[in-house]
C-alpha cells in the first residue's frame, strides 16, 4: 500500500478478494457496474502556485464520456473548494456532447 492508515491494507485486501473493490487504469472498464468513482490524480502547482486541475478535469471528462448510469463521483481532498463545480461541469459537458440524457444532481 502506498499510504499508511492503520488497518487499511487488511480492509483493501479483504474487499479485493471478495470482489467489492478493484483497481485498474482502464477508466471505461472501471466505472461499468460501479456505484462510486474516485478521482485521485496529481494536482501539481501551476505557474502561479495554484493547483493545476488539468488531470482532474481530464478524468472528469472521460467519466462523462464513459458513464452509462448512476455514478457517485468523488474527488480527493487536496483540490480547491470549487473543484467539485468544475468536475460537475466537465462531466455534464461530455454527457451533452455525446447526446446522453443522463443528468447530474
Automatic annotation (TrEMBL):
One of its GO terms (molecular function) is NAD binding. SUPFAM superfamilies: NAD(P)-binding Rossmann-fold domains (SSF51735). InterPro entries: NAD(P)-bd_dom_sf, UDP-Glc/GDP-Man_DH_N. It comes from the Eukaryota. Pfam families: UDPG_MGDP_dh_N (PF03721). Residues 1-98 form the UDP-glucose/GDP-mannose dehydrogenase N-terminal domain. This is UDP-glucose/GDP-mannose dehydrogenase N-terminal domain-containing protein. It comes from Daphnia sinensis.
Amino acid at each position: 500500500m502506498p499510504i499508511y492508515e492503520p488497518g487499511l491494507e487488511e480492509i483493501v485486501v479483504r474487499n479485493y478478494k471478495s470482489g467489492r473493490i478493484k483497481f485498474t487504469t482502464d477508466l471505461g472498464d472501471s466505472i461499468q457496474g460501479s456505484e462510486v468513482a474516485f478521482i485521485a490524480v496529481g494536482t501539481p502547482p501551476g505557474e502561479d502556485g495554484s493547483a493545476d486541475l488539468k488531470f482532474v478535469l481530464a478524468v472528469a471528462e472521460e467519466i462523462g464520456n464513459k458513464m452509462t448510469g448512476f455514478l457517485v463521483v468523488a474527488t480527493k481532498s487536496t483540490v480547491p473548494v470549487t473543484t467539485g463545480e468544475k468536475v460537475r461541469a466537465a462531466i455534464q459537458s461530455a454527457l451533452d456532447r455525446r447526446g446522453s440524457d443522463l443528468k447530474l444532481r
